Amino acid sequence: MKKTACHLLSAAFFLSLPAAAFAADGSLNSTSILRVYQDDRAGFASKDLAPVTEFLALDAEKLGDGNLSAHLYGWGRLDLADDSFNNGKTDASLTYGYLMYRFKNANAQARAGRFMVTDGIVNEHVDGVSASTDLPYGFRVSAFGGAPVHTQHLANENTDGKGNGIFGGRLGYRFGGMLEVGVSGVYESGAPSLDRPGNIALERGARLGDHRLVGGDIWFSPVRAVELIGHTSYNTETSGIAEHTYLLNLKPAKKLLVAAEFSEHHERNYFYSSALFASMVGDLSEKSRTTGLSGSYELGQGTEVSADYKHYSRDIGSADRFGANVRFTHMDNTMRSGIGYHYLNADSGFAINPATDDSASFHEVRCYTMRDTKTFFGALDAIGYFFKEKINNEKSAWETIGSVGYHITPALALSGDLSYGQNPQYNDDLKGLVRLTYNMNYSGKGDAK
Amino acid sequence: MIRPTKLFPLLALAGLTVIFAACSQMGTMESLPASHPEELGTGRVSCSECHEDTQKGSMKPLTAFNHSSEFVKNHRFYAATDDKVCATCHKPSFCADCHTHKVEMKPSVKFGNRPDREMPHRGDFMTLHKIEGKLDPASCYRCHGRANNQRCVVCHTR
């Protein structure tokens, strides 16, 4: 009943779409893509694929009394040749579709329909309602409730493992320009029972269960040049810390930013409500830790250099990744380029087949350039991974993509991509793509992508 | 000893007083604008080019939201508490370019004409994910743990 009511909210959204046609403000973004490629891998039947996909995004603002808006994003696919992904000739998905009412004061707003919730430690996809507002003295509160958006059933199960109801929220406090702290939580109704022996074993071994988390978050900036931000979450079902993740930003000069990162995950507690991930923990480890240091510096007008180092520590071994990127923007930002190099030095435990004592280390090289003028646009992009030891008898995996396009009108553009690569999966990976985009903004919203 | 039932009307009155006081104050509290009042240029934005103040409504200095490479890489920290700041310049579909319900194609394929956007999983990620997934499975889980995993469950079964 609750589940039905929540899905009816999403349905109600669609009934409001005719009204959206009369919106004074808004935007319509359509991307139609035809891909042409062959899926030919050892051990699988060869497929000739030609799926055409339509992505549609609609934002209708200033409805009703001017404070109501409607938002929609989804896609649909039709296979013109062999079936894609064993789903039949067609597939579709509604990512979000909701009505939002923005009150004039206190950043208060309410949403109804299907939407994403990112609030403190909460990261959910919900069919339901949500509301949030600032409160006096620096406090703010938000809450949501409804049904989790269900996704693909687990293999040989009649469920995706999610419960039928979910609610949560966050209470925060801000002290002008210096501090924000918050407590947040999410509570999902009981997870459905699973049938596969492996999943039953996970449940009985207390490695898989209900999705219930609480946690706290912080943003602290005692001076403009220092910023600490992050959160900790706690699994109330396993009575253990699930995640610590924190970032320290230092800005010693206007164009220089140095960041230190620390993340630690207790994987039984973190993956507890996902059969997909909980099943992998036993093969990996109970705890993982990542520490890193990175920095970026603007050398001058249009040039940014960044470098980063990250250390991964797990029961199965440790790894280090380091590298650098350079980004260039020229000609009033119509020309953008970049080049980057990274090296992952990883223990054999991270290799694809650790039993064979393979190395998991590889070099990564990427360079790209693009030009976007009022009439034409084009891009070249190349990325290569060069393995320390062969994977499937291949020393590398590389791909190049070339794209050219033409602005038929300021809002309408036609483009085509051609990509070619070689990798452990495919000897000759050639793909073609034709793209028609229509981006019409009726409101002059800041970012037009 | 005062019975709780006799205290209830007093507590209710006090509660109502607090709520009315809060509501009257909230009427004077500023909201962030629904959209950026001026058209922004293409590419990454540096808020501090125009703004030096602490943003009313978010109570944070806008320098915190300058779109450096570091910010883009770590934007999840900001989106978790300041999505209303993001929404003044970005439409919801901007997030959905990567954060989606069921992925139809890699974002880097959909936006093959925009290599400047930091789209995830470029190149042969089918091979790479067998290494990256062991390195940092939590980073996979954030997007593919409880959603957007219809491709994953095909192979990852127990």
From TrEMBL, chain A:
<keyword id="KW-0732">Signal</keyword>
<protein>
    <submittedName>
        <fullName>Uncharacterized protein</fullName>
    </submittedName>
</protein>
<feature type="signal peptide">
    <location>
        <begin position="1"/>
        <end position="23"/>
    </location>
</feature>
UniProtKB/TrEMBL annotation, chain B:
<dbReference type="InterPro" id="IPR036280">
    <property type="entry name" value="Multihaem_cyt_sf"/>
</dbReference>
<keyword id="KW-0732">Signal</keyword>
<feature type="signal peptide">
    <location>
        <begin position="1"/>
        <end position="21"/>
    </location>
</feature>
<protein>
    <submittedName>
        <fullName>Cytochrome c family protein</fullName>
    </submittedName>
</protein>
